[in-house]
Specification:
39% of the residues lie in helices and 14% in strands. The protein is α/β, with parallel strands linked by helices. A seven-stranded mixed β-sheet has the order 4-10-9-8-7-5-6, with helices on both faces. It has a four-stranded mixed β-sheet with strand order 1-2-3-13. It has a four-stranded antiparallel β-sheet with strand order 11-12-15-14, covered by helices on one side. The protein is globular.
Length: 468
């Protein structure tokens, strides 16, 4: 009998063409994609990526805000493989559970602030937010307030891409005419962006105005019709917006006065990005009613999300013992994902990565803020390992370049050619590297990004744009 012929492994161009011909990417920009295709990534280790051609890049993006413990960790792969061999799947519907799901839920309850001792596992951040919003409706109805279902969010927020979570979020560019969004029962307040506050207004006055706007909305709509407020402690994809001092605490206090549940969307900020397990209480003095999380929960090794919520919410939902919580997913509490989550939290604790994120993160922000001296840079903002550079045409007026100039993409392309990845978002370049980053690697990021910005600035000036 003739042995079967081994199939030839696709080469770099074959992979590029397969992807271009068959894959619909999240946020596909059809024209450029069909012309240029995608960069094919083949390997990752620590903070570094290699493409199919063998070129190495420092990943200053951290995957998608998520590769917290770094890539290529064998013990993560072993945890995955051992759990898959022992129990690859077990549903968690109604009254069935599994070992890793129960253990991870208990660990998250231990780490979360206040009385957030209950966990509902989801498939990622979008489904965690979707579930949290529906839980607001459920809880308010259980409390005898079935009309108190309105949700308040902010402009420039990103909360996911399910129908409901994208309707709740409102990041520029996410709303397109070809899709439909839930409009009724969702309200949006101003983004708490101090850099874009009204001229002549102090940051403290801006904070007062933002809180007053929330109170005015409650008065206009009626407290009996607003059930929940959702906020990223730092608005991530909306521009790494760090709110004014005291803002989140004051918004939380407004929520408490009106029986409005406070949802902290910590899909990005949880598990070390700001040097804490969770940022809400540690950074901003808020103990929310719910925390949504994902990304750093498994450091991106496998999909997993969670809603961590209070005993108070559980007690109301479970009060008469007859209700059904008819929400969940086939992969809720997936044993392999939960085993990876447990190992991930173990690594973060054992290696002191929260402490490293705090120490090196402060240096990261300090080094990058030096870029504000460049003519194209309006502001460098963020907190620790969550930073963005906002590009402007005019520093005095903060006016951006025309959208078609696409300077942030040009900067990311220039940095990529220099061996580093940063993420372009509108007029921003965003960075969120692994918590394992070193000071030497911070220096590389700062120096490379400066070279890329200078290169693109020179190109823009030659094209006739006025910069500075």
């Amino acid at each position: 009998m003739t042995a079967p012929m081994a199939l030839a492994r696709p080469g770099p161009h074959d992979l590029w063409e397969m992807d271009r011909r068959h894959l619909l990417h999240p946020w596909t920009n059809f024209g450029p994609f069909e012309r240029e295709g995608s960069l094919v990534i083949s390997r990752g280790e620590g903070c570094y990526l290699w493409d199919a051609e063998g070129r190495r890049y420092f990943d200053a993006v951290g995957g998608m805000w998520c590769t917290n413990v770094g890539l290529g960790r064998r013990e993560m792969a072993v945890a995955m493989a051992e759990q898959a061999e022992r129990l690859a799947f077990s549903n968690t519907f109604v009254d069935v559970t599994n070992d890793p799901s129960a253990r991870l839920a208990a660990r998250l309850a231990e780490l979360a602030p206040g009385d957030l001792n209950r966990v509902h596992f989801t498939t990622g951040g979008s489904t965690a937010v979707d579930t949290a919003v529906r839980m607001v409706w459920y809880w308010q109805t259980c409390m005898g307030r079935p009309e108190k279902t309105g949700i308040v969010a902010r402009d420039h927020s990103y909360h996911g891409s399910t129908y409901l979570s994208q309707s709740v979020g409102k990041r520029p560019g996410d709303r397109v005419a070809e899709f439909r969004y839930k409009e009724t029962g969702i309200h949006h307040l101003s983004a708490p962006n101090p850099y874009r506050r009204p001229e002549g207004m102090s940051e403290a006055q801006f904070c007062d105005a933002l809180v007053a706007e929330f109170e005015a909305l409650i008065l206009r709509v009626g407290a009996d019709r607003i059930g929940g407020f959702i906020a990223e402690p730092i608005q991530a994809s909306g521009g790494v917006i760090v709110p004014p001092q005291g803002y989140l605490r004051r918004m939380w206090e407004v929520c408490r006065r009106h029986d409005i549940l406070f949802i902290a969307d910590e899909v990005v900020t949880a598990f070390g990005r700001l040097g804490h397990w969770f940022a809400s209480e540690a950074e901003f003095g808020v103990v929310p009613d719910m925390i949504t999380c994902a990304k750093g929960l498994t450091s991106g090794y496998v999909p997993l999300g969670a809603v961590i919520f209070s005993d108070r919410i559980w007690q109301a939902m479970a009060a008469n013992g007859e209700r059904w919580f008819t929400s969940g997913f086939t992969y809720s509490g997936h044993p392999v994902s939960c085993a990876v989550g447990l190992k991930n939290l173990e690594i973060i604790e054992r290696e002191g990565l929260l402490e490293n994120a705090a120490r090196v993160g402060d240096y990261f922000l300090e080094r990058l803020q030096a870029l504000e001296a460049l003519p194209l840079v309006g502001q460098v903002r963020g907190r620790r390992l969550m930073v963005c550079v906002e590009n402007v045409a005019d520093k005095a007026t903060k006016a951006p370049l025309p959208d078609g100039v696409n300077e942030s993409k040009r900067i990311s392309d220039a940095a990529e050619a220099m061996g580093m990845m940063v993420r372009p978002l509108g007029h921003l370049n965003v960075m969120s590297p692994a918590l394992t980053i070193t000071e030497a690697e911070v220096d590389f990021v700062a120096e490379t990004l400066e070279r890329a910005i200078r290169q693109v600035t020179d190109e823009l000036v030659r094209e006739g744009h006025r910069i500075g």
